[in-house]
Amino acid sequence: MNRHDSTQRRGNAGLSRALARNLVLIVIAVATAGPFLWALSTSLKPTRQILEAPPSLIPADPTIVQYERIVRDGVVSAFAVSTFVTVTTIVVTLVLGVLAAYALSRFEIPLKRSILLLFVAALSMPIASVLVPIQSIAGRLGWLDSLVLLIVVYVSISLPYAVWLLKTHFDSAPRELEQAAAIDGYGRLATMRKVLLPGAMPAILVAAIFTFLAAWNDYIVAAVLLRSPATQTIQVGLMFYLGTFGREWGPLMAGVVIAIVPPLLVFFIFRKKLIVGVADGAVKG
Amino acid sequence: MITRTATQPSAWERRIPQLLVAPALVIVALTQLAPAVVALYESFRNVVYFQDLGPVGVANYAAIFSDAQFWTSLRISLIYTVACVALGLTLALVSALAIRSLGPSGTTLATLLLVPWAISPIVVALLARWILAPHEGGLFNATLAIFGIDPVGLLNQEASALPTLILISVWRNFAFAAIILIAGLARIPQDLYSAAAADGATAWERFVTITLPLLRPSLIIALVILTISYFNEVQLIIGLTNGGPARSTETLAYFLYDLGVVKIQNGMANAVAVVMFVLNVALVALLVVISNRAAVRGVRAL
Question: pLDDT: is B273 or A244 the higher one?
């Protein structure tokens, strides 16, 4: 083969490969960020500009009237309910998860294998199948509309993953430090607080992020278990607005923007931890 | 005295580990195990709007299996799941390879891809509905108008609703599989490629003989996770179509939601829940058996 020919061909191939890469990059960027930017753009337009044809991509004179509208319609209360439920879920999940994972990792417990099996089975239990019987039980006992029940269900959704993740961490953490702490006269609780927890922080953080996303982004559990408008989470609120506003996309998109700010913040602050967690393959798709 | 307490912990102290596990165990058992038992029990009873009207034998199951909508929904579930998994996995593989070839900057891109997955399905549904709106202001139809094409309501027509739902579902979740595949690609030793290239193997040959076989464990994990999550997807469907138009997007998961949560036919819905549960277990078992060794290797590799 002619040598000159082959280098030139390789050069062309390199160029087209670079082009293809950039194209992939642009397509991905537009396909993922585009819809969110469009929602932001819509939410900043006055109502008459929203239904304009052809639509302008960037609002000519940005306004916050859509946000004022959605605030009047109770988005603040929905945001507060979501925040309260999510934060409580995270705290309860982490406390119970750390305690259970620590005990399962360090001590002999009767029926340990069965307990671990239950957590693994719960890991792959789709919520849609258990929600119908949960609603059935809650309805009979008169427990619908209880934020406590909602939090308990959220905790049970995230707890199996948290226990699995933290147990894996404790299993691989060296025991020498704990033994040294015990020799130094530390009690069990003090050992846990001063020795075990600092080392487990990265794993705890990953569990917290996935618990946050599961609780904040859930619609169906909240929609099924909470019936009164006073206790609406932000996701239930959005569906409610869709029903009442109909074609009024301005306040709806303002609501969407408000609803995605917390998960986007968490996502971009903790993106590296999130990627590692997903790559482990134990989170629900 | 001191040695005795150290070597012989009191009965109370021996209980501590059990007490530490108990709260987590009780919560998970009560909200995951107990409902499964209740579902099985109520599926043999006539329960409507939380009122137990007594045992009915297998009447609930008979009613479901003779309901044409059950079989239609099962068929729609199969089409939806197979199409989403096939498209999602292909897209995940292509983007994983593309991102891998980008080097370090690819990681940032992979992160960006995952954003729709981190956003709630309801928000994704609202965004899609607004972009596809068949009236003034809809971005998709405004783009079509530039080419002189009349507006279409992709989500409002029987012929196009399911394909549109599938595309939106793939858009939301495929990056999840891509991340798993990128992690799998990173575990393939690079010298295998240089050795093959030295032997004169083409890029395609290297892909078929090195990448695909070594990526199999990750592919299986992604396949199982995607299959289960698409088979049980219901929130996106609620947000996008509510099963319509004319029940053309009513999967089995939506059929269950509609029967149990909307119509509150607890007995019959629980029978469907039991069927769904059995199908889920069968699905996982099938996928794992088909590729048992690869899956085991994959789990160990984690």
Answer: B273
Shortest distance, CA A8 to any CA of chain B (angstroms):
18
Contacts of A110 in chain B (CB under 8 A): 18
| Residue B217 CB burial class (10 angstroms; 0-12, 13-18, ≥19) | buried
Query: Which residue of chain A comes nearest to B23, CA vs CA?
Result: A96
Asked if the Cβ–Cβ distance from B102 to A21 is below 8 Å, we say yes
Which among A192, A199, A163, A168 is positioned nearest to A178, based on CA atoms? A192
Q: How many residues does chain A have?
A: 285
A275·B253 Cβ contact <8 A: no
Nearest to B176 among A28, A53, A285 (CB): A285
3-class SS shares of chain B: helix, strand, coil, % to 5 = 75, 5, 20
Classify each residue of A249-281 as buried b or exposed e, where b means 16 or more C-beta atoms within 10 Å of its C-beta: bbbbbbbbbbbbebbeebbeebbebbbebbbbb
Q: Which two tokens stand for residue A91?
A: 């705290």
Would an 8 Å CB–CB cutoff place B89 in contact with chain A?
no
Name the burial class of residue B282, with classes exposed (0-12), middle (13-18) and buried (19+) by CB atoms within 10 angstroms of its CB: exposed
pLDDT tens-digit map of A171-228? 887 787 777 877 777 777 777 777 788 888 888 999 999 999 999 999 999 999 987 7
Computed over every residue of chain B, the mean pLDDT equals 85
Whether the Cβ atoms of residue A104 and residue A167 lie closer than 8 Å to each other: yes
How many Å apart are CA B108 and CA A275, to the nearest integer? 10
> pLDDT (tens digit, 9 = 90+) per residue, A123-179?
777 777 788 888 888 888 888 888 999 999 999 999 998 998 899 888 887 787 777
Give DSSP secondary structure letters for chain A. Answer: --HHHHHHHHHHHHHHHHHHHHHHHHHHHHHHHHHHHHHHHHHTS-HHHHT-SSPPSS-SS---HHHHHHHHTTHHHHHHHHHHHHHHHHHHHHHHHHHHHHHHHHS--TTHHHHHHHHHHHHT--HHHHHHHHHHHHHHHT-TT-HHHHHHHHHHHHHHHHHHHHHHHHHHS-SHHHHHHHHTT--HHHHIIIIIHHHHHHHHHHHHHHHHHHHHH--HHHHHH--SGGG--HHHHHHHHHHHHTT-HHHHHHHHHHHHHHHHHHHHHSHHHHHHHHHTT-S--
Who contacts A186 (Cβ-Cβ below 8 Å, separation ≥6)?
A194, A195
User: Does residue A11 surpass a pLDDT of 70?
Assistant: no
pLDDT interval class at A282 (50, 70, 90): low
> With pLDDT > 70 as the criterion, what percentage of chain A qualifies?
93
Query: Distance of alpha carbon A267 from its chain centroid, rounded?
Result: 8
Interface test with A, best of B127, B167, B216 (most A CBs within 10 A): B127
